Amino acid sequence: MINKGQYFSPEGLEKLKKELEERKYVLRKEIAAKILEAKDLGDLAENAEFTEAKEMQAFNEGRIEELESIIKNAMLISIKGGQLNSVFIAYAPFDNPEIAVSVVIENIGKKQGLAVLAAKSFLEIYFSNF
For residues 69 and 74, what is the distance between their CA atoms, to the nearest angstrom? Predict the structure, then answer.
């Protein structure tokens, strides 16, 4: 799966990294144990537990691959500022940044939601040209 890059806050990116770690180091071992238990039950051709465990394994491995791609190509957006000004910074790609772009929106008052949408739109247009 090719990933052109998605925008994440530092917290959102950290959440994906934790999910990846959980899938690689915890869930992968649990699924392997289920496969071994199911093999011990006998005939694999008619073994529903084995089939289910193998399907879980395939899904987990696919999600691991997807998460690794997303994290590798992630664009990190940092939002800093006060009530009147906001600064949005995007790095791409996340794991080895080649470019950083900042968007400063001044005098936004209580309309920070609009500032986020404006900055996101600008960054999407900018990065779509690469």
Answer: 8
pLDDT, tens digit (0-9, with 9 covering 90-100), for 52-64: 999 999 999 999 9
**Are 64 and 101 in a shared domain?**
no
Single residue among 40, 56, 72 that ends a domain in this structure? 72
| Distance (Å, whole) CA 86 – CA 116 | 9
Residue 60 is assigned to a structural domain of this protein: yes
2 within domain boundaries? no
- Give the dihedral sign, CA 120/124/125/126: positive
**How many structural domains is the chain composed of?**
2
Q: Residues 114, 48: contact at Cβ < 8 Å?
A: no
Tokens representing 69 are 């791609």
* Residue 31: closest CA among 78, 63, 66: 63
pLDDT tens string 79-99: 555 556 667 777 776 667 777
Q: What is the pTM of this model?
A: 0.62
